[in-house]
Amino acid sequence: MNRFSMGFFALLLVSTPHLDAQTEDGFYVELDAGLSLVSDFTTVKFDGGANFGGALGYRFLHHYRGEVNISTRNADVDTVGGVAGFGDLKVTVFMANVYYDFDLGSSLKPYLGVGAGVGTDELNYATDPMDPFPLGFDGGDLAWNLMVGASYRIHEGIDLSFGYRYLGVLEVFDDNLKIHEFLMGVRYHF
């Protein structure tokens, strides 16, 4: 994290009036989007991609959140066997997540989270863009994720969230799929 980012978050922490220190328990919805970086397979390497998702959750005991989440991400194929490749990878996951929100006595609340679920995946690739029969795989298996980040209360009942998610999907195309994601979201408590 560079000095500008650290200074920006420190300024937010000390200069913003405190909004709703004791966040009420109850339901929330969240939408998020961000950047996905897919770890390469043995022969297929990927470019960065985008992810989109949404969640329905419930805050309880003022610090805990449980949610069901669906998200999807896409990444273009960069190379196949060391030569230029064409195609894409699409991964969709259905997760049950649990979070702990740290109360710093301000509008900024760091969080840690963990979750498990299932993932579906589809990979299509070729080394010739004109190939009418590209190679392809699809399937699904168990998925898990770890999350760290922070939310920032911008208005009563509305939070912006910024975070990192490590997503793993087991045994995808004879390899475990590993994805690093950087997310921004909006959460509405009702």
Fraction in beta strands: over 45%
Broad structural category:
mainly beta
Can you tell me the CATH architecture? Beta Barrel
CATH topology descriptor: Porin
Order of helices and strands: HEEEEEEEEE
Number of helices: 1
Specify the CATH class. Mainly Beta
Provide structural commentary.
The protein has one helix at residues 3-15; strands spanning 26-38, 44-60, 64-80, 83-84, 86-101, 108-126, 135-155, 158-172, 175-189. The chain has an eight-stranded antiparallel β-barrel. It has 190 residues and is mainly beta. A hairpin with a 2-residue loop joins strand 3 (64-80) and strand 4. Residues 11-22 have low confidence and may be disordered. Helix content is 7%, strand content 71%. The protein has a single domain, classed as Porin, CATH 2.40.160.20.
Write the layout of secondary structure elements.
Layout: H1 3-15, E1 26-38, E2 44-60, E3 64-80, E4 83-84, E5 86-101, E6 108-126, E7 135-155, E8 158-172, E9 175-189
Antiparallel strand pairs: 1-2, 1-9, 2-3, 3-4, 3-5, 5-6, 6-7, 7-8, 8-9
List the keywords:
190 residues, mainly beta, Porin, 8-stranded antiparallel barrel, 1 helix, 9 strands, 7% helix, elongated
